């Protein structure tokens, strides 16, 4: 793959974020705020125009090797963040081969780029089977579903032969604000909050546990990793500070919205669409705290984050 090596002013902070969904867009926004020159690459234009916060957008099919070549040539990034999909767990379960092929191909195309300062790929807690209440970087992987299989395959592609320094950052269930206007939100928090704010009931498993991490915190950590000048571990974990069930979390959201907690209906994980999710998707890290500056990132707990996010769901 071709790579450009200009060293003109600003080049060292030029970033390409592959994937412009919920997580990718927030990472791009944070990088712009920290002085990076950011291009988002994705098949479709983001819902929120990147130009509104100082980024650019470029059409990109990350499974197409030639399209990735062109993106590297035109953007000339020093860092790449891979947040590519497909990421819908239910869709991946129905299309396992297509999901795995897409994740492997996109990762391989950017792992092959030489001379970058760093590549960070966002991976998932679904690379674990859910048997352990807590998973650290040394916990053996055993994907529980097709999405986990696809992401684990992408990790192996990235780490087995990356031409530039590369790290897979596994994140727990990411959440934050998403605007109203649809019924298919990309994160559990937004889905619950919009329905509870309208007085509608929500179902949430009482036996599926996670360490939710606010999207703002994910973006902050990624920005710190890109700015780090030394070596990094090949795999890092990022989970929120609390282990909660989805049902208990939904009740915290209801309280923050002043909605009746009785609107939350606790259900068994196996009863609905959460059946393919591992029982425990909880991450903790023995390695991230050793990276300089990471201890200064105050990860927000679910109750405090719910209180700070609630006004955005009550005033559409």
TrEMBL record:
Organism superkingdom: Bacteria
One Pfam family here: RmlD_sub_bind
Residues passing through the membrane, by range: none
Record SUPFAM superfamilies: NAD(P)-binding Rossmann-fold domains
Annotated ranges, domain RmlD-like substrate binding: 17-290
Classification via PANTHER family: NAD(P)-BINDING ROSSMANN-FOLD SUPERFAMILY PROTEIN
The protein's name in its UniProt record: Sugar nucleotide-binding protein
Natural source organism: Streptomyces exfoliatus
């Amino acid at each position: 793959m071709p790579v450009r090596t200009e060293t003109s002013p600003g080049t060292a902070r030029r970033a390409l974020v592959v994937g412009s969904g919920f997580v990718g867009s927030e990472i791009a926004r944070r990088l712009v705020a920290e002085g990076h020159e950011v291009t988002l690459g994705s098949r479709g234009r983001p819902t929120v125009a990147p130009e509104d916060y100082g980024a650019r957008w470029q059409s990109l099919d990350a499974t197409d090797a030639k399209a990735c070549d062109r993106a590297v040539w035109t953007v000339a990034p020093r860092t790449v963040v891979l947040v590519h999909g497909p990421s819908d767990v239910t869709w991946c379960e129905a299309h396992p081969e297509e999901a795995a092929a897409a994740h492997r191909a996109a990762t391989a195309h950017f792992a092959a780029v030489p001379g970058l300062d760093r590549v960070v790929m966002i991976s998932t807690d679904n690379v674990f089977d859910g048997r352990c209440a807590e998973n650290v970087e040394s916990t053996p992987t055993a994907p529980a579903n097709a999405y986990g299989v696809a992401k684990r395959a992408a990790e192996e592609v990235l780490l087995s032969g990356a031409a530039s320094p590369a790290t897979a950052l596994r994140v727990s269930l990411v959440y934050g604000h998403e605007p109203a206007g649809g019924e298919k939100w990309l994160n559990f928090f937004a889905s619950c909050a919009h329905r509870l704010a309208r007085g509608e009931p929500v179902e949430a498993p009482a036996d599926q546990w996670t360490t939710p991490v606010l999207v703002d915190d994910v973006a902050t950590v990624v920005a710190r990793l890109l700015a780090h000048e030394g070596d990094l571990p090949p795999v890092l974990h990022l989970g929120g500070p609390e282990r909660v069930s989805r049902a208990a979390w939904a009740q915290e959201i209801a309280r923050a919205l002043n909605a009746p907690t009785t609107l939350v209906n606790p259900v068994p994980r196996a009863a609905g669409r959460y059946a393919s999710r591992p029982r425990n998707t909880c991450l903790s890290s023995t390695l991230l705290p050793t990276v300089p500056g990471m201890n200064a990132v105050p990860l927000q707990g679910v109750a405090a984050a719910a209180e700070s996010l609630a006004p955005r769901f009550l005033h559409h």
